[in-house]
Design goal:
81 residues
Length: 81
């Protein structure tokens, strides 16, 4: 089990923290951003595999930013430190 901190780019949230246990992702927390929405994303994705999160959230965009907090979460869970 490892605790991951991912620095986001292009979003209001600055960091995403989560726990990886094999391919299972839990304890998702965002620093900054839209507090209520990001708490909901974390709860909805809690316990999913990295691939499930990636397939649901990758490419979700916020305005004309070219990314979103959800998209950054998808990228974070697929990255390897």
């Amino acid at each position: 089990m490892e605790e991951i901190t991912y620095k986001t780019t292009g979003t209001c949230a600055k960091f995403i923290h989560f726990t990886r246990d094999g391919d299972k992702i839990t304890n998702i927390r965002f620093e900054g951003g839209c507090n209520g929405n990001l708490k909901a994303i974390g709860r909805l994705c809690d316990g999913m595999s990295a691939q499930e999160i990636n397939s649901k959230l990758l490419g979700n965009l916020c305005g004309n930013k070219g990314t979103s907090c959800a998209d950054q979460l998808a990228r974070a869970v697929m990255s390897r430190p």
